[in-house]
Specification:
alpha/beta; 2 domains; five-stranded mixed beta sheet; 12 helices
Length: about 425
C-alpha cells in the first residue's frame, strides 16, 4: 500500500486526541464552540513551533511560575479542557519526544470518557477542574534521587526520565524493572490530586467527591485487611508518611491501576503481589477475588483497555505483540493496547490480539500477524485502508490497517 506522510499522520492523530478530551462535555453548542476555538489555537501554535509534527512546542508559556522557564525546561505540550483551559506538560532536555508523547497519551487515557461507567461517562468536569487548578505535569531528567535541583522546586506533579517507558523501546520490551514504568502511577496521582479530588486536609477542589468516597472506602478496607501497603504481612514503613501527607488513597489507587493494566505481571520477585510486593493483586485476574472493591473502582471510571493510539518507538526492530505471550514479558501490559502506530523506518511486525485494533505502519515494510488461516478472515480494502475481520468469534477481532505491506496468516502471507 502507498505510504502516507508519517509526520502528517502523527499530527492528525494528536489533534484528534486533544479534541477528544475537549468533547467530553456532552456536545452542546457552547462546548463545541470552545473546542473549535481551542483547536484552532493549538493548530496555530503548532505551525509556529520548530517541532510541528507532534504537537510539542519549544516555547515555554509565561505565567506558569518562575521555575517554568527556558533555562529549566525546553519543551511544552498541553491538553485543552472543555472550558478552554489548559492542562500543562513541561519537559527537561533529556526527556525524549517519544517520552513526552507517552506521558500525554496516558493523561489523555485517564481523561477519555467511558460510556456507561458510574463516574467516568463524562469526564469533562475532571479535565475542567485540572485546568482551573492550574495543573502542571513536570517531566524531569534522571530519577527521583534528589540529584535534580529542579525536582524540589517544581509546584506540579513530577515524573522522571528513568521511569517513563515507551512502547516498543528497550526498557519496555525487556521489562526488568531496573527502569520500572511509573508513568501510569504518577499521572494518576496528577489526575487524582488535581481533577478527581481528595478528601481531607491540604487538597485542591475536586470534581468527583462521590468517587473519592468510594476510593477511600476501598483503601481503608485494603489497609485493614492487609491487602495493600504490606510487605510479607507487615505494614509498610511508608504508611505513616502517606497518612501524614494525606496521600493514602492516591497511593492505593495507583497500586490498583498498575495491576489492572498488567504493569506488574512480569515481576518475578512475587508470584502473587504487585507494586514491589505491597499490593495483593499482581494481575487483573487476581484482583477480582483478592481485592474486589479495588477491582470495582476501575470499572467505575476507567476502560478495560488502553484508549490512546500507542506510538511504538522508532528503535523497535522486530515484532511487537498485542497478544499475551508468556515468553514476552511486556505483553502482560501490551495485551490491553488496541491501537498502535509504528514510528521510524525499521521493518517491523505487529501481532494482533482479540480487540478491534487500528494498526498503522511506518516508512519501512511492515507485517500484521494473525492467529488463523487466511480462509477464516474477510479482507476488504478501500482508500488505502484494509479491514481484516476474523470470522472466528473472540479470536482476532476486526483490524483496520494502514501503511501495512503484508498480512501474515498461518497458511500464507498476503501482499497488500
Amino acid at each position: 500500500m502507498k505510504k502516507t506522510n508519517k509526520k502528517l499522520l502523527i499530527s492528525s492523530l494528536i489533534v484528534g486526541s486533544l479534541s477528544l478530551v475537549a468533547c467530553g462535555g456532552g456536545g452542546s453548542d457552547a462546548v463545541n464552540e470552545v473546542v473549535k476555538t481551542a483547536t484552532t489555537e493549538i493548530n496555530k501554535q503548532a505551525k509556529e513551533d520548530a517541532n510541528t509534527d507532534n504537537g510539542i512546542s519549544t516555547k515555554i508559556p509565561t505565567g506558569l511560575g518562575s521555575v517554568y522557564n527556558s533555562k529549566n525546561f525546553n519543551r511544552y505540550t498541553k491538553i485543552v479542557a472543555p472550558n478552554g483551559g489548559s492542562i500543562h506538560i513541561v519537559a527537561q532536555d533529556k526527556i525524549s519526544d517519544e517520552q513526552i508523547l507517552r506521558a500525554r497519551n496516558v493523561l489523555q487515557h485517564y481523561l477519555t470518557d467511558y460510556a456507561g461507567s458510574k463516574y467516568g461517562a463524562d469526564k469533562s468536569e475532571v479535565a475542567n477542574k485540572m485546568a482551573e487548578n492550574k495543573a502542571i505535569l513536570c517531566l524531569l531528567n534522571g530519577q527521583d534521587d534528589g540529584k535534580n535541583p529542579i525536582g524540589s522546586q517544581v509546584t506540579g506533579q513530577p515524573l522522571y526520565q528513568n521511569e517513563i517507558q515507551v512502547e516498543g523501546g528497550k526498557w519496555y520490551m525487556k521489562q526488568n524493572y531496573d527502569h520500572r514504568d511509573a508513568t501510569y502511577e504518577e499521572i494518576l496521582h496528577f489526575v487524582h490530586d488535581n481533577g478527581i479530588g481528595v478528601d481531607g486536609e491540604n487538597t485542591l477542589p475536586g470534581a468527583l467527591p462521590k468517587y473519592q468516597a468510594e476510593i477511600r472506602k476501598a483503601q481503608k478496607n485494603a489497609l485493614a485487611k492487609k491487602l495493600w501497603a504490606t510487605i510479607k504481612g507487615n505494614e509498610s514503613s511508608q504508611v505513616e508518611e502517606w497518612r501524614a501527607e494525606n496521600s493514602l488513597t492516591q497511593e492505593y489507587l495507583a497500586s490498583v491501576v498498575d495491576s489492572y493494566y498488567g504493569l506488574w505481571g512480569a515481576w518475578e520477585e512475587s508470584k502473587t503481589n504487585g507494586m514491589w510486593g505491597m499490593y495483593i493483586g499482581k494481575a487483573r485476574e487476581d484482583m477480582k477475588t483478592e481485592d474486589p472493591m479495588g477491582y470495582a473502582l476501575m470499572g467505575m471510571f476507567l476502560q478495560p483497555y488502553i484508549t490512546y493510539n500507542a506510538q511504538i518507538s522508532a528503535s523497535l526492530n522486530g515484532n511487537f505483540s498485542l497478544k499475551f505471550d508468556a515468553s514476552k514479558p511486556y505483553t502482560h501490559h501490551s495485551r490491553y493496547l488496541k491501537d498502535v502506530t509504528l514510528l521510524g523506518s525499521n521493518d517491523n511486525s505487529v501481532t494482533v490480539n482479540e480487540l478491534d485494533n487500528h494498526i498503522t505502519g511506518n516508512t519501512g515494510n511492515n507485517t500484521v500477524i494473525f492467529t488463523g488461516k487466511s480462509s477464516e478472515y474477510k479482507v476488504t480494502t478501500k482508500n488505502n485502508q484494509t479491514v481484516v475481520t476474523d470470522t472466528v468469534s473472540g479470536r482476532d477481532g476486526t483490524n483496520t490497517v494502514s501503511d501495512i505491506e503484508k498480512l501474515q496468516f498461518t497458511d500464507k502471507t498476503v501482499d497488500l
